[in-house]
Amino acid sequence: MKALSSSAKQKYLDRLKVHSKGEIHDFCDALIEAKEEAIADEKESALHLNDQNLSLVIMDLFIAGSDTTALTMRWIILLMANNMEMQLRMRHEINDIIGDRVADNHHKNDCHYVNAFIAETLRYKGVAPLGIPHVALCDMQLGSKYLNDSFVIGNLLAISNDPNLWPKPDVFSPNRFLDKDNKYMSALPGFTPFGIGR
Per UniProt, what is one GO molecular function of this protein (predicted)? Predict the structure, then answer.
């Protein structure tokens, strides 16, 4: 953990040396901009936007990304092992689209069933049961009443298993992400594997 913390801090400090005001090329630049704006505007948040905290944010982001990717891959492998027909369908799709060529990002959009399988894995065995906490900016009514400044946390697990959104939610079915022409549909209502926005 010390090595990861040290690496994240070094990444942040390296970016700090070359950062140009107003130019945001990556997440480190965005953090630096937020820090500089808070200092310039004399905001209280500037106290928390110190180099140590920003380095920790970078480390958290790296860990979260690595962990969710590894967990998703484990579920994909397990679900493929338990669904041989689906595994073969993906294999045939990959062979038909990519063949003997080196796979690149352009091929991704043509692998409709593979994308559907991954999306269904994220729905069926989501890596994040709850969204990140948000704060209500005003009193509002969304099924229940939320008062201004209330913490609101999206229950992603409940959304992924809502039978009104997903018929037979306890059944693993990549076909729910395919249209009538077997094309992948990514923007389905209720597909929120990583959160529900701001």
Answer: monooxygenase activity
Q: Which residues of 13-30 are buried (b: 16+ CB within 10 A; e: fewer)?
A: eebeeebeeeeeeeebbe
Confirm whether 50 is domain-assigned. Answer: yes
Cβ-count burial of 31 within 10 angstroms (0-12 exposed, 13-18 middle, 19+ buried)? buried
DSSP state of 26: S
| Residue 61, number of CB atoms within 10 A of its CB | 13
Amino acid of residue 89 = R
Task: Give the number of domains in the chain.
Answer: 2
* pLDDT digits 0-9 by tens, 56-74: 888 877 777 777 888 899 9
Write out the DSSP string of 76-144.
Answer: HHHHHHH-HHHHHHHHHHHHHHTTTSPP-HHHHTT-HHHHHHHHHHHHHT-S-SS---EE-SS-EEESE
The span from the CA of 187 to the CA of 92, in Å, is: 25
pLDDT of residue 124: 96
Q: What is the pLDDT of residue 111?
A: 97
Q: One-letter amino acid identity for 119?
A: A
Residue 72 counted as domain residue: no
Q: Is the pLDDT of residue 173 over 90?
A: yes
Based on the fold, state whether residues 90 and 123 are members of the same structural domain.
yes
Residue ranges making up the domain that contains 35: 1-67
- Shared domain for 55 and 93, answered yes or no, is no
